[in-house]
Amino acid sequence: MGAVRMAIMNQSDSTVDQQKVRSVAQDLSEADLIQFCSGIFPDEPLYQRFANEARFGLSRVLPVLSSFDTRQLDVLEVGAGSCILAAYLASKNMRMTALEPLGPEFGFFTDLQNRTLDFCRRQSIPLDLVRSTGEQLDVRSRFDVAFTINALEHMRDPLLAIDNMVASLRSGGVLLAHCPNYTVPFDSHFNVLLLTRSKPINEWLYRSKIARHPSVWKELNLIRYIDVRRHLDARGLTGTFNTSAMRDSVARLLDDPLFAQRMPLPVRAIGGILRSTGLARALRLMPARFQSPMEVLVKKPDRGPRDRTSP
Known about the structure:
about 300 residues; two-stranded antiparallel ribbon; 7-stranded mixed sheet; 9 strands
């Protein structure tokens, strides 16, 4: 994808110990994923953007995959969108299931997904695509890894989706969930500062922006760290929140040009100040409750989580 692709491939990865990952996850890499995408999509900005998002998703899930024998993994992605990341992992001999209902609010994914699936068919890449939501997932003890990247905030009942993903794991399996934490009152879909958690108030304030994508706004659930933390505690599950998530996001803001160009100037300026003053490194000392995005790892114990109606 031209100069932009080279910029992506040359970026330093602030979130992954590449040497460790490659020694365990064989030939998985962000640069290889971008090369994989070049066989699917034309060299155009829209496709570059979503290839870049898949690259970001891989950067978040690689540390989890590196703890397993990747050639024997059963992996579930919930909210797979374009299916680029799922297809890439399937091409590396992982047994991939991609869950994606592809609702009308994300109709622009249709072309991306169709191109990806057609490529999989032509290359005989076995990708299992399920047209369903995380809330409808009804699979027990099948997967080693389940992950969702920037999709949980779009789900009608994200906590039920978390329950279902955990239930789908084998004992010792791992769930990775990465999404905004609306404790921090900023929404990156519309690049707006949220005033209170009232959607009607914010909808009125930002009506001109929201009018461009009303379905996306309607489905946002404004999930918070405390919602996830309390839910996991109620299920007797241990969630490990990544306290480097915000620091990594600042690094991406400055090192990832495709991501940066989607962010408003004040956000980019703040990121630059944090890095130049050295305060970006200190962000990992901030409690996870006040970091956005939030990222949580949940390892399934030998017993399953309690039923949702349990006290």
